[in-house]
């Protein structure tokens, strides 16, 4: 009987612990390895390092001042409109996003490890699917669009049924997490570069002289102030970096598939694909993506596998509007090996539009790229890519 | 009366009680929205009646027999005739009373309630009648040989019922599974399930699928009221189950297969939404005036409504929490949302904020008549569309926002065409 009672009560205890939602008093500090921060590799191999506790405390405090956790804002009457939006966004994020994208947007939620591709890590401030230039931040509309339509071919579902103000609040919160993550990274980079020499750091994470320490604390505070401005501005300026495309009609490229010139445009696009744009180097003779150099073993900025897309599937993650494809080709994809053709002198704006038309029909007419041999089986199965 | 017979008695009694309560706790079928759905519902009720009546009588019989034998000495066992006793006391009276109920003209509501009282009450009366007789427990076990005739009967009777049902339902099944040719003017929509979304692909301006101008829309299926809608159902990754609860459509989507599905819609989305905001329950419906569902007479909402709105046109009714919860479930949780509650620019009047307010758990506490919404429309409140759901009835049903989509039923083909045109334009954006 006692055994039974103990068993039942311990199960109940487990439940009560499991159900309690305990938020930390602030965003937890991210763990990075040295290699992830500096991009350098050392003979000793890449490993995580321990911040000396005063440095750690300073970084945490500075970040908390710059980007406090919205769940700690409890005094309703003193909140600004922006803060209220962030609270709403945080609550929605907690409900819909956190299990993949993680509490502070590191793409490290509990389900993240089982997903291919991995959920986006917002902390770099680098986003792939956007209307803006490769180096620029996305606009809020870009974030809302990906929330609303999802990213087909990934595990990102569409939240089309949520109201606009909810989507806007979520986008606002994602931007907030990204800004916080970017600042955090920069502060950690300071330490990994200025804190002490790499060998010392690897030997003993705690070793730092008092003078060094004072300098560092000051540097962290200064950099934080300065960089917060820079990061915030980069988000505010996103709208100025939207990639505008010339009207295809004025360049003589028809988008209407029933028009007589459409087929010519498609064939021209194929020539560009095979020739000057150099697409086939990675996406292959048959458009299904190649393994090998720059191929299936490619990794993205975050270190995860990022093979060239199988273009015959028609799963355009960043949107399927002609303008989406145009921007993807013109700017490339930030964080991946996909280069932008906008800077390729051999490829004109008209060429890009022809390429867009070619890509629009390729999924229904993969024979356009048939190599004469038997079509090779798809490198990528429909599930993952 | 044996303890065990009482135990067995609770099963049919609870069964009947749950059946009677189902309507009020949201366990009964939601309103049907397609022609074939009506037939499917009819079949469901036929099967429910047959199995329900059989279930109740077998459970009553079980309770009865346990009680019957518990009161007899071994010596009496051979001569006892449980079937005759059961027929006399249980089955004949209940069946007779049931038939009377069926023939006697009375409102359907009373018939239901009298039927429920009969099914619950008579066994209880019987058990009271016999409970005076003490049980004499026999200590020795004894052997009772099976009854071949009975076994044959209870095998053949269900077999006949099954075959009867199979024949009876065939016309509906045929319509569902082996339908007539697809009407020439109906363009199928390709619906692709993937984790975690429904992706709808419409033929674009060229009226052909698999061309560059296909329209691709996530989670929104658009059809026309009163017209057959045809779907080519596919799956991209795992098994999904395409489920339109109100249209009674449920079809597995299998990777590698294209499965045709068709349905029609009796109501357009607008009609459905309009209805959702008018309460249909008798005690809450007052077509002439305003109705507000409130928790109690002391609710601040009553005072507010009385003051703001002509009291003559207003009916206030206190209502139990359960009812409010049931309505909230019926109308979907977000049936009302304060438009500007979070914004400083356009604060809600305090009273209205309380009215539209949510409790700490986020449940909607009150629902309003359409007229109340119209009164404050735009300024403070807006109805959030109540839609026909599309869900996945496979495992992903519980993940990712329940893999939920929305079916939009347009009033006329012209409106659907308008939507298609707008979507096509939106998908051809070049700037
Ligand atoms: Cu599913």
Quick description:
The complex is a heterodimer of chains A (385) and B (431). Chain A is mostly helical and 385 residues long.
What is the element layout, followed by pairings?
The complex is a heterodimer of chains A (385) and B (431).
Chain A: H1 2-19, H2 34-38, H3 53-66, H4 81-96, H5 98-101, H6 140-149, H7 164-195, H8 198-203, H9 210-236, H10 262-274, H11 280-283, H12 322-331, H13 349-361
Helix pairs in contact in A: 3-7, 3-9, 4-7, 6-7, 7-9, 10-13, 12-13
Chain B: H1 3-25, H2 35-70, H3 74-77, H4 82-103, H5 108-131, H6 148-177, E1 189-194, E2 197-202, E3 215-218, E4 220-224, E5 229-235, E6 240-244, E7 249-253, E8 259-263, H7 269-277, E9 290-294, H8 300-308, E10 314-318, H9 321-331, E11 336-338, H10 350-356, H11 370-376, E12 381-383, E13 388-392, E14 405-410, H12 413-427
Parallel strand pairs in B: 1-5, 4-14, 9-10
Antiparallel strand pairs in B: 1-2, 2-3, 5-8, 6-7, 6-13, 11-12, 13-14
Helix pairs in contact in B: 1-2, 1-5, 2-4, 2-6, 4-5
The structure holds copper (II) ion (CU).
Structure characteristics:
heterodimer; A: mainly alpha; 13 helices; 0% strand; disordered C terminus; B: 431 residues; 5-stranded mixed sheet; 12 helices; 14 strands; binds copper (II) ion
Structure characterization notes:
The complex is a heterodimer of chains A (385) and B (431). Chain A is mostly helical and 385 residues long. Helix content of chain A is 45%, strand content 0%. Chain A has helices at residues 2-19, 34-38, 53-66, 81-96, 98-101, 140-149, 164-195, 198-203, 210-236, 262-274, 280-283, 322-331, 349-361. The radius of gyration of chain A is 24 Å and the shape is globular. Chain B has 431 residues and is an alpha+beta fold. In chain B, 46% of the residues lie in helices and 16% in strands. Chain B is built from 12 helices and 14 strands. Chain B has helices at 3-25, 35-70, 74-77, 82-103, 108-131, 148-177, 269-277, 300-308, 321-331, 350-356, 370-376, 413-427; strands at residues 189-194, 197-202, 215-218, 220-224, 229-235, 240-244, 249-253, 259-263, 290-294, 314-318, 336-338, 381-383, 388-392, 405-410. Chain B has a 5-stranded mixed beta sheet. The radius of gyration of chain B is 29 Å and the shape is elongated. Mean pLDDT of chain B is 70; it is low at 276-306 and 308-385. The complex binds copper (II) ion. Copper (II) ion (CU) binds at residues 193, 240, 392, 394, 396, 403 of chain B.
